[in-house]
């Protein structure tokens, strides 16, 4: 049984990952909100990743960093503060968690780190300048630490397309928008959080023991939609 820290495990993709892992692993959830359910293997700390000190954890095998943002505006309407805030939550928060738990993670069982990017970092998508910039920082972090922390710690990222979460609710707020997004994906669908959680579970497992420094895109083919 591994001990896994999930930052942002109370909602969305993080919640789905907790659901996949909690029956067979000890899960420590760091989040501003309480999870909707309790479990004997689940420990929760009320934490704002950017403002609060992180709890001391003495044994750890994996870190999953889920917080993110979807800040879609034309470049003319994006402020410098928008760019700073997106970078803080997506990159600085992840760095803070990794630095806090690095030494204890090195002593873990097949230790690994999992971060989240977006398909917008690879594709030219309008109105994604701030979030694509921040998530490109995540991908650079994965590549750099994949080399630096090898062979002791693996680090990878998942880059999903639109996923049916509260964070993406503005993109899926009516039937017309839902159909448009489906139509723009070659497989005519968008992601369910459980699908992303399944990929996360695989990347944290020994089945992925030879995979590090990689970005795994989950996009149902080439995304062509405009917001």
From TrEMBL:
GO molecular function: oxidoreductase activity
UniProtKB keywords: Oxidoreductase
Pfam families assigned: adh_short_C2
Classification via InterPro entries: NAD(P)-bd_dom_sf, SDR_DHRS6-like, SDR_fam
EC numbers on record: 1.1.1.-
Top-rank taxon: Bacteria
Broad class of enzyme this protein falls into: oxidoreductase
Protein family according to the UniProt entry: Belongs to the short-chain dehydrogenases/reductases (SDR) family.
Protein name: 2,5-dichloro-2,5-cyclohexadiene-1,4-diol dehydrogenase
Taxonomic source organism: Arenibacter algicola
Origin organism lineage: Bacteria, Pseudomonadati, Bacteroidota, Flavobacteriia, Flavobacteriales
């Amino acid at each position: 049984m591994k001990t896994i820290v999930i930052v942002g495990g109370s909602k969305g993709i993080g919640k789905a990952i907790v659901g996949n892992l909690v029956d067979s692993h000890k899960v420590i959830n760091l989040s501003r909100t309480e999870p909707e359910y309790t479990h004997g293997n689940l420990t929760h700390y009320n934490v704002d990743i950017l403002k609060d000190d992180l709890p001391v954890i003495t044994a750890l095998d994996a870190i999953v960093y889920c917080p993110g943002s979807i800040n879609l505006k034309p470049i003319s309407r994006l402020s410098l503060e928008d760019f700073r805030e997106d970078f803080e939550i997506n990159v600085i928060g992840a760095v803070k968690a990794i630095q806090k738990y690095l030494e204890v993670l090195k002593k873990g069982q097949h230790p690994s780190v999992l971060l989240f990017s977006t398909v917008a970092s690879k594709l030219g998508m309008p109105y994604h300048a701030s979030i694509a910039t921040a998530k490109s920082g995540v991908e650079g972090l994965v590549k750099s630490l994949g080399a630096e922390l090898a062979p002791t710690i693996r680090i990878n990222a998942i880059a999903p397309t639109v996923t049916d979460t509260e964070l993406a609710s503005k993109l899926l707020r009516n039937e017309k928008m839902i159909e448009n997004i489906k139509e723009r994906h070659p497989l005519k669908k968008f992601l369910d959080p459980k699908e992303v959680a399944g990929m996360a579970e695989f990347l944290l497992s020994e089945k992925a023991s030879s995979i590090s420094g990689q970005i795994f895109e989950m996009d149902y083919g080439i995304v062509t939609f405009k917001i």
